[in-house]
Amino acid sequence: MMKENVMDNAADQVTDKLTASETLSQVDTSRRRAMKQLTALFGGALSMSSISLAVQGYQAQKDIPGRTGKILNPQQLNLLRILVGLIIPATETPSASDVDVHGFIDNQLAFCFSKEEQLAFIRGLEKLQSTAVKQLGQAFAKCHQAQQVDLLNNLLSDLEDASGDFDSKDKDFFYRTKSLTLLGYYTSEIGATRELAYLPIPGGYRGNVPFDEVGKAWALN
Amino acid sequence: MTKITNKSIHIKTQPLEYDAIVVGSGITGGWAAKEFCEKGLKTLLVERGRPVEHKKDYIGEGVKTWEMPFRGQVEKALVEKQYPVQAQCYAFNDATKHFFGNDHDYPYSTEKDKPFSWIRGNQLGGKSLLWHRQSYRWSDFDFNANAKDGYGTDWPIRYKDIQDWYDYVEHHVGISGSVENIPQLPDSKFLPPFEFNTVEKRLKAKIEQNYSDRKLIMGRCAHLSKPAQHHLEQGRGPCMARNECQKGCSFGAYFSTQSSTLPAAQKTGNLTVATNSIVHSVIYDANSNRATGVRIIDSETMQTREYYGKVVFLCASTLGTTQIMLNSVSETFPNGIANSSGVLGHYLMDHCYNAGAYADIPGFEDEFYSGRRPTGVYMPRFQNLVDKNPDFLRGYAFSGQAYREAWWEFGGKKGFGVDYKKAIQQAGGWKFGLHASGEMLPRYENQVSLHATKKDKWGIPQLHFDCSYSDNEKKMMQSAADTAAEMFEAIGLKNVHKYTNDRPMGIAIHEMGTARMGKDPKTSILNGFNQAHDIPNLFVTDGACMASSAWQNPSLTYMALTVRACDFAVKEMKAGRI
Ligand SMILES: Cc1cc2nc3c(=O)[nH]c(=O)nc-3n(C[C@H](O)[C@H](O)[C@H](O)COP(=O)(O)OP(=O)(O)OC[C@H]3O[C@@H](n4cnc5c(N)ncnc54)[C@H](O)[C@@H]3O)c2cc1C
Ligand code: SF4
Questions:
Q1: What is the pTM of this model?
Q2: Cβ contact B465:B448 at 8 Å
Q3: What Gene3D superfamilies does this protein's entry cite (chain B) (predicted)?
Q4: Is residue B119 in contact with ligand 1, taking CB distance under 6 Å?
């Protein structure tokens, strides 16, 4: 990991670092776990809040048919919409697709990820699509929800995938999608304030609070 | 409180001779300015970066996640262009990035295969805005360390020399913590400690039952857990436990130049602040053997100018100060000012934060906490105090916390769908981690120097780093990982994982040692009062002065040394020796 020069390998280190999505990353190496712990401890990268005066925050958009993303074509964006909705579906609160997490991910990919990461993500979506076509004879979007869920369970399965269609890259893709979905959902207003407990100015720290008193996980932990 | 406006601090020319010039407005420079001003000296505080006004310029503070353009992540193009090194720091995010130095404008180079991550805060307030506020006294175990094992040079001071000065700064700063009577970690003058959570309490009891040499205490930090009257009078209020301090805190609840030392200095009417003023070098007069002032390059106009003062305090951070000194060459000092010993730039140290362990704690699903405590739990050093560790010299502390897994930790877990969403809503299991903070030995070969040809955009020679950890630090880290994991197994934690990593020097952000104190002018730059052996009116009170690194976070000690040096300098001025 030690390389020639800090400035030279900086790009590497940046992808390696604890940006929110990396923290959310599926790659469960001990290194990253450790980093994650450090961040959790220091609270730095995770108590997220910011502005960059020049750039507008990502604004959720309506799903009009044929909508195109910044990185994704209409078909890919639609597939992602279904995927994030399967990961975080509607309960008493809206689903990830209801709050446009797919649009958020597309935007995030465009600005915060490298070309290779963008391509890997698109490859993952296309692979899911082609596998649906191969195994179920139709586009992922057209499959029944139960079929979609089966396909994803199949992808995630620890056992050697019987069909041999999915490999570790596909797993990586799905975990990354999950991580980005969580980021998009739980930092949205609905995800943070309605689905979870939200306390921007706690007024002090109390170390012994019955879970029931809060009743939900904290959006900012 | 006097309001600091950009106009009043933004001077362009100044023919006056000041009583004192302080270079750098971070933790140490803020203190030096306050002390001199309160002692009646007309003081000029020189800062290379832009002015940052308390409250008004904390543009990341309180912004809601969904209002952030990338929800806290920083645009890749911006990171690559301006912050490739700074982005390695855990505290770097979209809400804090403007308080980090710009790597593009402040370049440096490193020796092949020896990376160094130089994390900087270059604005009014320096890294005082960014620091994590962990504050621990050093003890005689630390001041005796060099003499005992022969690494580095003996400290010219002992604990008794700075004990009262710790008291003095702690009173003003406000340090939250608990009285523990631990010989290797003397108690501070405390405000109340933050609370342990239920799980930490249980772990504390178990650890202390099992290990008579170890204590788990609440992390000591520069936060107003319960402000005293004099804190309120500084315009500071109680800590709200947001743990978003590095964005800036309008409550003034953590110590920074802006919240604490600058307003105090400003109140005296004796302070002038020159921002956007890069100190190029110290002006030296060979006839009187005095530093007579500083040469400035205006960061915006590129114009140069000079400021004059009776005494010059360098507080530009360890490496900033070293760069200035190396660049201050004269016939008398061809290798850098006050460098007759030749050790300037050598003995660079950082801490080693490259090991630890974490584990699951079964149960306690009914327990939670409220608020985001801005500190963790702390296990002071317990190695090489009485018994000798066979693997390494000196020692390390552990810090950590117990917490329930939050939504962001579910990305790597199995599942999706309704049950998954519910599980996230119900909060994850409890986790506990302990992470080492290890001492680094002072070694001559760890050096920064001026690059022979490379310059920054203002024409100042760049720093070149040639340094790395030694086997002692590596063995210490391995031992720390093993020790933490054994301890976790012994107290019944589950899924114990230990780790070591090879993150480069610099990333612990405790660089120090490059203009060290010592008893012998032939082997050190400064005497026990931070005064240059060679030049009586030149002082260095930032981390460059440190003769060893100890294992505690260093800034509280920098503060104590700074105020002690100010007191000494003023007495010397009054006595006519400066
Ligand atoms: C994220 C983070 C967490 C940290 N956590 C802790 C902690 O918990 N506990 C702890 O003790 N320490 C911690 N530190 C370290 C702490 O911030 C430093 O030890 C401390 O700020 C050093 O004070 P200083 O005055 O020497 O330097 P700084 O605070 O860095 O101030 C130096 C100032 O000098 C200015 N300067 C530099 N060169 C020039 C020049 N040529 N001309 C004019 N001005 C110049 C800089 O712009 C800067 O404003 C942390 C640091 C960071 C970044
Ligand atoms: S935790 Fe305390 S010091 Fe930090 S931002 Fe909140 S109120 Fe300010």
A1: 0.92
A2: yes
A3: FAD/NAD(P)-binding domain
A4: yes
